[in-house]
Write a structure and sequence with these properties.
The complex is a heterodimer. Chain A is mainly α. Helices cover about 80% and strands about 0% of the residues of chain A. Chain A has one domain. The chains are: A mainly alpha, B alpha/beta.
């Protein structure tokens, strides 16, 4: 445990040692605001909730989260520090988990900094704060899912641009898998059970539930399993690369 | 301490390390020599568990690096090739991180940190980001990280690369001072380093061991082993010296260097130890030549290295 927390602290500090953290947070907040107020029509809806805000999270994460995760392993490979890291007395699991948790905490920090919008909605009306809290949890879980995918992809390459683009493509697949246009492609030649399974993999379906304020155990399990599966794949990729 | 059995690594169809076996123990400073691309770094990466072997096994202090890697890596201090570091960190926070990972605590932690920072003169740059440090400092941060937990096995891939002559000297002194109770493996292509610090040298090329001996033992394979170099003073009888030396019983050939005024008498392979030295020095005495210096050579490692590695390729 202490090894993971050591790795976690080193990683998290490294975000703030470079301008990356500040640039990311500023852009994240500006985009969040822009989407909510202009595209989401926060005021025009005239409702005291944050649906206009949370609706755009999946699409913002699609581009912003891979920007965080792309460096997780690709940068270590590029600089050679992965050789230092993996020859320390730590397991691949500890390294993967420490890095992932730091990246997740960092997105958590960025997400927390959107609190002025919560203050705004409370100032303007009387929203259901429980539902808003649930939606924040859902948003954080979804960010974790994106990060786990990005971390796994990043372990394949030493090139951050490649890691970024591939992560977006994979995450896009997970976002869209609930959409009819994607499902129609499969429906013609796959049994209904598998089509349903693909549909149930979609981030959007699960996030939609939570963002309405309904924390369903199945949605939590979904994100938990997704994160676990991709982090496990991440350790496999690392070991496979060592043997390559 | 380290046992390597039939270690092999293929990259695609290319065999980088080919059925390598050797063992080494505490107290040894093993120099790992070879031309670039000989398989030195790959071997070290396999010994430290960073690269998984295609076949064969590595045991460090009784722990198999594949099945019991964690225990093995606890015993090892490793400086990877190029001394990679986290560039955005400062040497101070970087060493703190390593101390945490190595589970150093309390008084021991402080003693070890102070000791490596002192030994590698990192004091003045502790709070500067590693990014901004010179190559020499970066290398020393990497070394500090490797020796921080006072490991029983120290594996250093080109430890003095990028250091100036003074720093090289200090690192060699450091290696020497730690060698009594540790096993130290260094890879290098600087041959003077092998003579300066190593108690054993293994030369590999194309992933195979070509020679395994003490540096002195390797030097005796040189044609210059027991050769005597005579520096003829300005205006001395250069030709007479060369002719007389060549006629000596133990001398095989001579090499004359007119520019520097020296004649080197190369001993015959079968001549006894210092025979050439005795013959040449009495010859000089008897003839009363005007000689600036007389020097016995123990052998040239660089020549042996070339002979061994190029002989293989030819």
């Amino acid at each position: 445990m202490s090894i993971i927390s050591t790795l976690f602290r080193r990683e998290l500090r490294s975000y703030f040692a470079t301008p990356v953290a500040y640039v990311f947070i500023v852009i994240f907040l500006v985009l969040m605001g822009t989407f909510t107020f202009y595209l989401g029509g926060f005021y025009e809806q005239g409702q005291a909730d944050l649906r206009a805000f949370f609706n755009f999270h999946p699409w913002l994460y699609l581009f912003l989260v891979p920007a965080i995760s792309m460096r997780l392993w690709a940068e270590e490979r590029k600089s050679g520090s992965i050789e230092l890291l993996m020859t320390l007395p730590i397991t691949a699991w500890q390294a993967v988990l420490g890095k992932f948790l730091a990246a997740w905490a960092f997105t958590g920090i960025a997400l927390t900094l959107t609190f002025p919008i919560w203050i705004t909605v409370n100032y303007l009306g009387d929203p259901d704060n429980g539902a808003i809290f649930a939606a924040y949890i859902g948003s954080l879980l979804m960010a974790g899912g994106f990060l786990a995918i990005g971390s796994c992809v990043s372990a394949f390459t030493r090139n951050q641009v490649i890691a970024f683009i591939i992560s977006i493509v994979v995450c896009f697949g997970f976002l869209l898998s609930g959409f009819p246009m994607v499902l129609d492609v499969f429906r013609n030649w796959l049994p209904q059970v598998i089509v349903d399974a693909i549909a149930s993999l979609s981030f959007l379906t699960h996030f939609a539930n939570i963002s309405r304020g309904v924390i369903d155990f199945r949605d939590l399990i979904y994100f938990g399993l997704l994160i676990g599966a991709f982090l496990y794949a991440n350790t496999i990729v690392l070991q496979w690369k060592q043997a390559d | 301490m380290i046992e390597i059995n039939s270690l092999t690594k293929h990259y695609g169809r290319h065999t980088v390390v080919d059925n390598l076996s050797f063992r080494c123990k505490a107290g040894e400073v093993l120099g790992f020599l070879g031309p670039n691309g000989a398989g030195k770094s790959t071997t070290m990466k396999m010994v430290t568990g960073f690269v998984t072997p295609s076949a064969g096994s590595v045991t460090v202090c009784g722990h198999d690096i594949m099945t019991d890697g964690l225990a093995a890596r606890r015993k090892i201090g490793y400086l990877p090739e190029g001394a990679p570091c986290y560039a955005e960190m400062t040497p101070g926070s970087f060493l703190d991180f390593i101390a945490d990972i190595r589970a150093l605590q309390g008084a021991e932690r402080k003693t070890r940190l102070d000791s490596v920072i002192g030994q590698l003169h990192l004091g003045p740059v502790l709070q500067q980001s590693i990014d901004t440090l010179s190559k020499g400092f970066k290398r020393r941060v990497g070394l500090a990280q490797a020796i921080l937990h006072d490991p029983q096995v120290l594996i250093l891939d080109e430890p003095t690369d990028g250091l100036d002559p003074n720093q090289k000297h200090e690192v060699r002194e450091l290696i020497h001072s730690m060698s009594a109770d540790k096993l130290i493996v260094i890879s290098t292509h600087v041959l003077e380093e092998v003579e300066a610090v190593c108690s054993r040298a293994i030369i590999i090329d194309n992933g195979k061991i070509l020679a395994d001996d003490t540096p002195h033992g390797l030097a005796t394979q040189s044609r210059y082993h027991n050769a005597v170099r005579i520096s003829v003073a300005d205006g001395g009888e250069f030709d007479a010296v060369e002719a007389a030396v060549l006629a000596l019983g133990s001398v095989d050939t001579t090499e004359a260097d007119r520019e520097h005024g020296s004649v080197t008498a190369i001993a015959k392979r079968d001549s006894a130890g210092m025979q050439t030295w005795h013959e040449v020095s009495s010859l000089v005495n008897n003839n009363g030549w005007n000689i600036a210096g007389l020097q016995l050579e123990s052998g040239r490692l660089d020549e042996v290295f070339r002979q061994i590695t190029q002989g293989e390729r030819a």
